[in-house]
Amino acid sequence: MGKPTLLTLRHVPTVTRIVVSILVLAAGFGVMSLLIATRVEAMRVDPERQAAVVPVFEAQRVVVQRPWQGYGRAEAIRRSRVPARINSVVTGIPDGLDAGVAVAEGQVLAELDEADFEQQAAADRQEVARLHAELERLDIEESRLSERIELLKKDLAIAQRQENRLRDMYEKRAANLADVERSERESLVLRRELVSANEALDGLPARRASTQASIEAARARSALATLSVERSRVTSPLAGVLSVYDLKIGENVTVGQTLAEVVDLTTIEVPVRLAAAARGTFSPGDAVRLVATSDSSRRWVGRVDRISPSDDPESRTMTAFVVVDQPEAAPNDPQTLPPGLFLSVQMDSHPSDPVLIVPRRAVRAGRLFVVEGDHLESRAVEIAYTVNGSPMDLPVEEWVVIREGAALEEADLVVAEATTLLRDGLRVEAHHLGSSGASP
What we know:
Pfam families: Beta-barrel_RND_2
GO molecular function: efflux transmembrane transporter activity
Strand order of the largest sheet: 3-13-16-15-14-17
Family: Belongs to the membrane fusion protein (MFP) (TC 8.A.1) family.
Shape: elongated
Distance between the termini: 76 Å
Keywords: Coiled coil, Membrane, Transmembrane, Transmembrane helix
Helix content: 25-40%
Protein name: Putative efflux pump membrane fusion protein
């Protein structure tokens, strides 16, 4: 027999098709009735009469230390930029020096050409010697002028007496007028010479002072040239590590040009920005924890060195200066705190007065649940700050301090975890965490 076609199916009687459909439906209803008859009836529980078990603890006042967190960038307390102090040419560089190399205080970093300064110092020393000879010559000149003045005074006295005698003789007609005038001219010449000698003698102190000033100027130039010779040897002002060093033989350097930079890694300072509310809660000497923001595995311990007296009104922050001592610092040691590293800084306040604390998970949307008798009651609270650790003998690591004035009293039974299933009026059975050591 061949496969039935649509044409042959059309010839099946309608009654037959109806009977088959009824049989299929009857079988389906039979199976459904069997399943219904053999089903297991679940026990019905009245939710209003069933009590939910919730973990609770007694609210207590405890002494805590408020954690403060801030940020800062590490800076070396002792660092020095080594500039060129003369205009010269680099003539020598010690072997092995480069950025990252440790240097000792006074170690030579570079040598500059000092020939011009040595010649200048020698010339200035010769000038000083010449000026000293000039002072000696002035002393001799002063002595000679003094002797000459004494002689001129005597000659002038003689000439004046001769002039007076000739005048007397002229009045007595014993001498002519020409002799008198000649005697007057001789007296005038001697008087002019005496005045000139006195002027020369009076000018000697000024000449001596000028020569002495020239000596001091030459000495200063000589000292400066000698100092420039000393400055031609560039040395490290402190012990540390070279952070900048880029010199080449034959390079021209000018006054003020940075030749190297040395950083002392043994003492690092971190100016830390904290909330202004932290002022007064810690003191210099308190311990501080520092963590690299780029790698949380890198950690250091420091201490508060000093505190800035003023707050920043715009950011509402204060600044505390933290010092990290690392006497064994090495530039390639991951445990060495390098300058420039950005840090997250954590410190604890001084112990507070007793405060109410609850687990952080006990507060949801500003409310927590308290067990009153056999049912729950929600209360509005305000969180003051978060505390990490275990201030109470409970297996909870994150706690919050409840701000004073909240509707929470000491010894209230607080639900340890405020889930979305809890509501006001829900019948509960309190399960004390402290008694069994259960965790929320």
